[in-house]
């Protein structure tokens, strides 16, 4: 660290990018943080995954008769509460790409311990309007960081968002969420995914409709298997036996 940077840090001590408290020294933290990312010990201590038996659930919170992929699994190691709720807000609305990359690497390391594997990782795309507003796709950043750890290729352009949709989190009814996302994706004609085993990645899962809609399309286009993987979610009760 330069003398100027040391002096500046004494005058204005770095603050945690998630909760705003004074950040801890890198030596005290349980993870290595990239670049200029600053977190406090309290926030880092909340990065604790669910028990292994609770990390796999069915993608849809409310399965329905006639579902073409009723057993689609979803890997979700963290709860959308406390640190992760604030972290997702910081990533989506605070421009914190570095935090997204760090948490994507954390996701990748936990998934690697659980032997999560596939041929391809595909992030859920944003609409052009949302992408222009935010400047980046947080699911893409998370997916790339996880793919680097897992050693699985990540492709950004396989899925295309065909239209802007309302935020799923703004819709309360399950039927409304399903209708909102219906037909919102198409496959890039440059890609042939026949026979591929694919993991689609997003930041947060609630009812699972976004991931499920993308998976239905990929299966129709010839994928052999599709699973979802997210950083966190608010589904704490298992709806199926472990996969």
Strand tally, please?
Answer: 8
Query: Helices and strands, in N-to-C order?
Result: HHEEEHHEHHEHEEHE
Mean pLDDT score: 86
Unreliable stretches (pLDDT < 50, length at least 5) are 3-8, 239-243
Q: Give the number of helices.
A: 8
Report on the structure:
The protein is an alpha/beta fold. It has helices spanning 3-11, 41-44, 82-93, 97-113, 128-134, 138-150, 174-181, 209-220; strands at 56-58, 73-75, 78-79, 120-123, 159-161, 185-187, 197-205, 225-233. The strands form two sheets. Strands 1, 2, 3, 4, 7 and 8 form a six-stranded mixed β-sheet that branches. Strands 5-6 form a two-stranded antiparallel sheet. Mean pLDDT is 86; it is low at 3-8 and 239-243.
Key attributes of the depicted protein:
alpha/beta; two-stranded antiparallel ribbon; 8 strands; 34% helix; disordered N terminus; disordered C terminus
TL;DR?
The chain has 243 residues and is of the alpha/beta class.
Topology diagram in text:
Layout: H1 3-11, H2 41-44, E1 56-58, E2 73-75, E3 78-79, H3 82-93, H4 97-113, E4 120-123, H5 128-134, H6 138-150, E5 159-161, H7 174-181, E6 185-187, E7 197-205, H8 209-220, E8 225-233
